[in-house]
Amino acid sequence: DLVNFGCKYGVDYVAASFVQSAADVKHIRHVLDSHGGERIQIISKIENGAALDNFDEILKETDGVMVARGDLGMEVPSAKVPLAQKMLVAKANRAGKFCICATQMLESM
What's the average pLDDT block by block, 10 residues per block, for the chain (109 residues)? Predict the structure, then answer.
């Protein structure tokens, strides 16, 4: 089981794919805590419309976010991805949370 492995070997971060709500983050936190992973930080991957809609609530519960541009571009028009990214990064910065932008970076240049 990956949770037991991560807790046993001192994983620092867990990247949670397709987070859609704060409840998803709370569930992951509960699972990690119940296996001794209280210090493991959660990176919520923002990859879909639901995550965009619920971003403020997700941001309150997560340790950091990853803007997954490739998957996000499948959910929203590709022309809107840079604007969404800018908004998400700004909100994460204001909240004091780290933010990673990943995938399909060069395609927008």
Answer: 88 96 98 95 96 98 95 88 94 98 65
The amino acid sitting at 44 is S
Each domain of the chain, given as residue ranges in start order, spans 18-103
Beta bridge partners of 102: 68
Cβ contact 63:42 at 8 Å: yes
pTM above 0.85, yes or no: yes
Which CATH number fits the domain 18-103, given the four candidates 3.40.50.2300, 3.40.50.1980, 3.40.190.10, 3.20.20.60? Answer: 3.20.20.60
Return the half-sphere exposure (C-beta side, CA atoms, 13 A cut-off) of residue 58: 29
